[in-house]
Specification:
Blueprint (H helix, E strand, L loop, with lengths): L1 H9 L8 E5 L6 E5 L5 E4 L3 H28 L3 H4 L4 H10 L1 H9 L4 H19 L6 H6 L8 H15 L3 H10 L5 H7 L14 H10 L19 H8 L19 E5 L10 E5 L1 E3 L1 E2 L4 E7 L2 E8 L2 E8 L3 E7 L5 E7 L6 E3 L2 E3 L2 E7 L7 E7 L11 H6 L4 E7 L8 H8 L5 H8 L7 E7 L4 E4 L5 E3 L11 E2 L7 E4 L7 E3 L5 E4 L21 H12 L5 H8 L5 H11 L6 H11 L11 H21 L11 H8 L20 H20 L8 H4 L2 E5 L6 H7 L1 E3 L11 E2 L13 E3 L1 E6 L7 E4 L16 H5 L4 E2 L4 H7 L2 E7 L2
Parallel strand pairs: 1-32, 3-8, 7-25, 12-21
Antiparallel strand pairs: 2-3, 2-32, 4-5, 4-24, 5-29, 6-28, 8-9, 9-10, 10-11, 11-18, 12-17, 13-14, 15-16, 18-19, 19-23, 20-22, 25-26, 27-28, 29-30, 30-31
Helix pairs in contact: 2-6, 2-8, 5-8, 18-21, 20-22
């Protein structure tokens, strides 16, 4: 009876979706029509009231998600989870995400501030109704605080963290320099196919000089807060605060990309453009996306919003459609700051004291912790709070972090709020001037028949004499390594109505050899872009159905590249012979109902372990991934790279043939232990289930059953319909963790024919039928209508809620 009573009470936490609510902070009535998929269509008589309505429905459907998001950005996870959240809090407090967000607000235009205030008022109006809170608040005994505009800006900046840089590889290069020569490091962190390795100085000599000449400093300057034996990245994954961990960002060896492509009327069946977009993000329950439609004077937009952030971030209006993929720019640099005996750091102009900020972290069930945050002229000192950074940093130095998103005049959210009111290419480009971080490839189409692409964002200009080129931690006291401003906006990559009639953006290299600026040396591999281009060229004129087939394509060009070497392997056992026989007729299609994708992925995992675990040592697990370009180079012996097949820990000289045979046996043994001995019953879709992790209940086995969302899925890291695995996750190394979080196809001949879907459901409440309603259709490559015409919405059936101003 108690359980039934609790359930009945918590059912009241589901939102009111019909009737009338009288609220403060709104000027005129706002109508919220929810369609059969629980997508809200917000009809308002002013921009302010439209954003008020968006804030209200975000809070109705995703209140817990918003609470977690702002706590992550503010470094306040330990207040809810106790000591388990301390590492993440220390790191994010040191980055200063919320402090920078507060500074950004001071640079926004009055209209932007007004709309942020309206959105905030909508969120707080819901809280003022004293609702029954979703289950997470009761389980963790947390009460939501009033929302603030800073919370929105800070969460938007955390999305930039997820998409914005290469600092992890910089740290790895400094770590590997202790044992590997620079050319071997550059082989492992392989260049973009067809590009030569970037010429770097001898990193071992560079950092070795620092190791041999330590400066004695006092303990208080070696790190201001206790650091646990575990790295903050392990803690990040443990508490599931998202995908803002060491494997995120633009690292090409952990492809976390997105797809977008657009064709003009000459290549479409309707004579008007078609645009597709599927941004790939970490899979969370609920999804990071919330689908919504806003209607107000000067505003008619529908698409993907993110709870906590006002505005349509990807979507369409009546005139244009746009999509995002990550450029993957190098917008982060690490600097080794040399310390003197007094704890100051050296600059080109002499010693300078660190800027110091002190903050207090409250810890649930524990004592408050004082955190002393040091910042150099380059940025916050992360070696004070990251054990990985501290262990790699020579004694007598501190490691500072520079990042474009930490600029006080970052206007990205202001630009995002304007996107939904853009009417043509010229105004679209103009809005891009304020899209500062992260740099994105933005595809564009309009009803006039134009298509385009631009990559707005702040990208540092590195001086010609900077031989490290942003790829390894630089001496902070040497002015050669300081940034020299940003690439001018008008010189960033762009295209408008290209002769080819189409544009493909899938995180591949987007600049020609003659492009004079340095954006990055670590582009994502071109497999997805090549496959999309191949499929676009197969059909003379495309329609929505052909675009949908491309979004669902699961042919892995990376797997196809490796297949000849795999098939040539000499089997050691009857099981291996059976596996090789199945692969003989397989074409690299990562279908959900087949065993071949599972065999190849497990084999690939063991092969990767055998190739570089010996060279990487302690750094291996955090850098264990498919690394398709590197593995292909080794198996093809490009430049003698087959030497990676030798295990440097043993006396005999191992060959790649031996390694392949042994890796296959180990892979098959692993699969038998997980899925039984009958190879014909192995199934890629179940092993590769798309796992949407709840924050933070995914780490509790019992709660995960209620809050996580799992669905069988196809694809792999390199397919258009992508599903990135985590080889280092021993429990579920084949599960999909990072995939198309949203899919959309925009038909510029008839905007009402456009379609979209996100990966879980509209509700963030597990008691709602809309918590996981999209997951099955999403996995099957299905969509829901993207309607904005009120008559058609009402004819299909809606629930009507009216928000009325309090007099």
């Amino acid at each position: 009876m108690a359980v039934v009573g609790a359930y009945a009470y918590l059912r009241q936490s589901l939102p009111q979706v019909s009737g009338q609510l009288v609220l403060a902070g709104i000027t005129q009535p706002v109508e919220v029509l929810r369609d059969r998929n629980a997508i809200p269509h917000i009809y308002a008589r002013s921009l302010d009231d439209a954003y008020y309505g968006l804030g209200f429905v975000h809070a109705q459907d995703r209140l817990w998600q918003m609470e977690v998001s702002r706590r992550i950005a503010a470094g306040r996870v330990a207040e809810v989870l106790g000591p388990a959240g301390l590492e993440a809090d220390r790191f994010l407090r040191t980055l200063g995400i919320r402090r920078v967000a507060e500074a950004n607000l001071r640079h926004y235009e009055p209209e932007t501030r007004r709309l942020l205030d309206a959105y905030t008022a909508g969120v707080n109006a819901f809280l003022a109704t004293k609702p029954v809170l979703p289950p997470e608040f009761w389980i963790l005994r947390v009460s939501p605080e009033p929302w603030t505009p800073v919370d929105s800006v800070a969460w938007a900046k955390m999305m930039a963290w997820d998409l914005g840089g290469n600092w992890r590889n910089e740290l790895l290069r400094m770590q590997l320099a202790k044992t590997l020569p620079t050319p071997r490091i550059q082989e492992f962190l392989a260049p973009y196919p067809g590009d030569p390795p970037v010429k770097l100085p001898d990193l071992k000599a560079l950092y070795g000089v620092m190791e041999r000449a330590p400066i004695q400093i006092s303990g208080e300057n070696r790190g201001q807060s206790p650091i646990s034996p575990k790295s903050p990245w392990a803690i990040f994954r443990k508490i599931a605060v998202g995908d803002f961990d060491a494997k995120s960002g633009s690292d090409p060896d952990f492809p976390h990309g997105s797809n977008s492509w657009v064709v003009n009327g000459s290549r479409s069946a309707t004579g008007k453009p078609l645009l597709a977009n599927d941004p790939h993000l970490g899979l969370t329950a609920p999804s990071v996306w919330y689908l919504a439609h806003l209607h107000a004077p000067g505003l008619e937009a529908i698409g993907g919003t993110m709870p906590g952030i006002p505005g349509i971030l990807v979507g369409r209006t009546e005139r244009i459609a746009w999509g995002f993929t990550n450029t993957g720019p190098d917008v982060q640099d690490l600097y080794l700051e040399k310390l003197d005996a007094a704890g100051n750091y050296l600059t080109p102009d002499g010693a300078r004291p660190f800027t110091v900020v002190e903050e207090t972290i409250r810890v649930k069930g524990g004592d408050d912790e004082r955190l002393r945050i040091r910042t150099s002229r380059h940025g916050p000192v992360i070696s004070d709070v990251s054990r990985a950074a501290l262990e790699a940093t020579p004694r007598g130095y501190a490691l500072a972090f520079a990042w474009t998103a930490l600029a006080e005049d970052d206007l990205t959210l202001q630009a995002a709020l304007k996107l939904a009111r853009v009417r043509d290419w010229a105004s679209f480009v103009e809005v891009g001037r304020d899209l500062h971080a992260p740099q994105q490839n933005v595809t564009y189409a309009d009803t006039a028949g134009n298509i385009g692409f631009i990559a707005p964002g702040r990208v540092p200009v590195r001086k010609p004499q900077n031989e490290l080129k942003g790829l390894a931690p630089a001496p902070g006291w040497d002015a050669r390594y300081d940034w020299a401003g940003y690439i001018p906006f008008d010189e960033l990559p762009r295209a408008f109505n290209p002769q080819s009639g189409f544009i493909v953006s899938a995180n591949q290299k987007i600049v020609p050899p003659e492009y004079r600026h340095h954006i990055t040396s670590e582009w994502q591999p071109p497999y997805r872009a090549q496959r999309i281009t191949e499929l676009l060229l197969k059909i003379e004129r495309h329609d929505r159905e052909s675009f949908a087939r491309i979004q669902s394509d699961v042919v892995s060009l990376a797997a196809r590249e490796l297949l000849p070497a795999l098939r040539a392997t000499q089997a050691k056992s009857s099981e291996a012979r059976d596996a090789l026989q199945k692969l003989a007729a397989w074409d690299g299609t990562m279908a959900a109902d087949r065993p071949e994708p599972l065999i190849v992925t497990a084999w690939w995992r063991e092969l990767a372990r055998s190739l570089y675990a010996d060279e990487l040592g302690d750094a291996f697990r955090m850098n264990w991934g498919p690394r398709a370009v590197f593995v292909a180079n080794v198996l093809a012996d490009r430049g003698g790279q087959s030497r990676w097949c030798d295990d440097i820990r043993t006396q005999p000289l191992e060959s790649c043939d031996e390694l392949l045979a042994t890796a296959l046996e180990r892979a098959l043994a692993d699969l038998r232990s997980r899925f039984g001995k009958n190879i014909s019953k192995w199934n890629w879709g179940d092993a590769h289930a798309a796992v949407h992790r709840h924050r933070p209940f995914s780490r509790n086995a019992w709660l995960a059953r209620l809050f996580d969302v799992r669905v069988p899925s196809a694809g792999d890291t390199y397919t258009v319909n992508a599903g990135h695995t985590d080889f280092a996750d021993d429990a579920e190394p084949y599960a999909s963790r990072h995939a198309a979080s949203l899919r959309a196809i925009y038909d510029l001949s008839d905007m009402q024919a456009s379609v979209f879907i996100q990966s879980t459901g509209q509700s963030g409440n597990p008691l709602s039928p809309h918590y996981r309603a999209f997951s099955g259709p999403w996995a099957r490559g299905e969509y829901v209508p993207m309607l904005t015409e009120r008559s058609r919405l009402e004819a299909a059936g809606v629930q009507r809620l009216v928000l009325t101003p309090r007099k």
